[in-house]
Amino acid sequence: MLKKWFETKLWKRILLALVLGVIVGSIFGEAAANLKWIGDVFIKLIRMIVVPLVFVTLVSGVVAMGSPSKLASIGAKTMGSFLLTTIGAITIGLFLAFLIQPGNGVSITGGEPQVLEAAIPLGERMMNIIPSNPIAALAEGDILAVIFFALLLGVGIMMSGKRAKPVADLMDSGSEVVLKITHLIMEVAPFGVFALIAAVAGTRGAGALLDVVPLALTILLGCFLHVIIVYGGIIRVVLGLPALRFFKDIVDAQLVAFSTSSSSATMPISIAVAEGNLGIKSPVASSVIPLGATVNMDGTAIYVGVVAVFTAQSFGIPLGLTDYALIALTTTIASIGTAAVPSASLFLLAGVLGVLGVTGEQTAIVVGFLLPFDRPLDMVRTTVNVTGNLAVCTAVAKWENEIDLDEFRRNPNI
């Protein structure tokens, strides 16, 4: 039986664990929360490996590129692609919110006000990318700062040539070791997913979304259309690759994203899937995936845009074309660098709703209304974010000839 378990594809084991988690949570209710510690262990294992994984694989990947111009090319294509997909996401979200009008006739005054953290200005957010102490950035898990330092270190090793070969070999070996640890952690994923889903199903219940059905359906439809039209279009139309194969190959990462609600926590699995299933070479996978986990928030963009329109409709605030344009612009900017942790999107609302004239007190009520229902929606938008990271990673790898197309078309081997 044990041999049969390990011979079964990981995504099938995770999917089975997810279904069993829903069943157990529904049967045992609040008591299922006692299983959450298993999920917490899984999350801690993932978070343990994130920083060393990003650091050593990114340094090793930069060195493997061979020239700074290659790094600049990958960076420009990555950021440009993420920006375009985010614009597509917010456009789909706003169009559906305008069409469906989920906020009409909905009263949210019963929500308990929540204290919101002050939004970090974009300029300050960008300045924080440069770490004043790289060691502190590594210790604190500041991913953007870690990426910045790793890029500089990789370029420094690259420019030093043969004299830096021992450091380059150390990083390359370290990358292999950390990836092996990641594969070991992935074997724990089914048990962690089972516990996390059982706890959510037991404490929230499947009917938790009934009070916000129009809003939830609008967000879910937006996420579905974005994945199929934008990501599927990138893979099939732009790259000329089989889209169904792509979606089948990334199921492992999607299921972990769904259960953890964290792009950051899913990062090790995403890198492993990119290299092991999609045939993407390390220089691209180790640079695009960590960057995407911090700047690519398409699911968040859809969510915040729809909620902004929902709020305006609920409070009776008329919206014109200029207002929709402001929502799109503010959401696109605000989603950059959003914390890749559960429910971070709720705290972006203050900046976005502010452009519509929604007061701080009203925003606090909106967050209080959404908070009890946010986790299921957060699970969906995180899945969208992770799917987008892998779609853009595949595109950049194809453009840079850093993908093994035969491996891409083979059956998943993780």
Total DSSP helices: 20
Average residue-wise pLDDT: 80
Radius of gyration: 21 Å
The fraction of residues in strands falls at under 5%
Distance between the termini: 19 Å
Shape: globular
Largest sheet features:
none
Output the keywords.
20 helices, 414 residues, mainly alpha
Sum this structure up briefly.
By secondary structure, this protein is an all-alpha fold. The longest helix is centred in the N-terminal third of the chain and has 33 residues.
3D architecture notes:
- By secondary structure, the protein is mainly α.
- It has a single domain (2-52, 77-120, 174-409), classed as Sodium:dicarboxylate symporter (Proton glutamate symport protein, Orthogonal Bundle), CATH 1.10.3860.10.
- It has helices spanning 2-7, 10-28, 36-65, 68-100, 122-127, 134-140, 143-160, 165-186, 189-204, 213-238, 243-249, 251-260, 263-276, 282-295, 298-315, 321-335, 349-354, 360-370, 374-399, 405-409.
- Helix 3 (36-65) packs across helix 13 (263-276), helix 4 runs parallel beside helix 15 (298-315) and helix 9 packs across helix 12.
- The two termini are 19 Å apart.
- 48% of the residues are buried.
List the helices and strands and how they pair.
Elements: H1 2-7, H2 10-28, H3 36-65, H4 68-100, H5 122-127, H6 134-140, H7 143-160, H8 165-186, H9 189-204, H10 213-238, H11 243-249, H12 251-260, H13 263-276, H14 282-295, H15 298-315, H16 321-335, H17 349-354, H18 360-370, H19 374-399, H20 405-409
Helix pairs in contact: 2-9, 2-12, 3-7, 3-8, 3-9, 3-13, 3-14, 4-10, 4-14, 4-15, 4-16, 4-19, 9-12, 10-11, 10-15, 10-19, 12-13, 12-19, 13-14, 13-19, 14-19, 15-16, 15-19
